[in-house]
Every structure is written in structure tokens, then in C-alpha cells.
Amino acid sequence: MLGTELRTRRFVRRLVPLRCSFCGRSEAEVDKLVRGGLAFICDECIAACARIVDESGPGPKGEGPGAG
Ligand SMILES: [Zn+2]
Fold first, then answer.
1. In angstroms, what is the span from residue 48 Cα to ligand 1's centroid?
2. What is the pLDDT of residues 32-66, one digit of tens each?
3. Among 19, 24, 23, 13, residue whose Cα is nearest residue 35
4. Ligand 1 centre distance from Cα of residue 66 (Å)
């Protein structure tokens, strides 16, 4: 039903714009905003996280800076 959809859309719209919990950019400033529980993350932060995970991924453990 079209009426129901319009109602739902109105209900979903919030007074406070959704923001990325990491960089603080609003929904309108990013391409995508992914919800994870109570937090949100934008596509750029996801890419940044993926890079960090990739860098610290498979490799020797305990040899990072600060170890010792
Ligand atoms: Zn972000």
C-alpha cells in the first residue's frame, strides 16, 4: 500500500540527522552510512578500517611499535 509506505518514511525521518560515529560526518555528506548496533559508520571510514585491518592482518605478532 502506498499510504503505509509514506507513513513509514515519515516515521523513519528523524529530527537529528544520522552521523558517522567515527568521523562525525552526516548522512548527507557521505555516500553510505552503515548502522552497527547503536553506532554508525560511513563508507570512507569502512575503507580506512579495511586498510588498517589489512596492514595489521597476517604477519608476525609482538613485533609492532611499543612492544617491549
Ligand atoms: Zn566516517
1. 9
2. 999 989 899 999 999 999 999 999 876 666 665 66
3. 19
4. 27
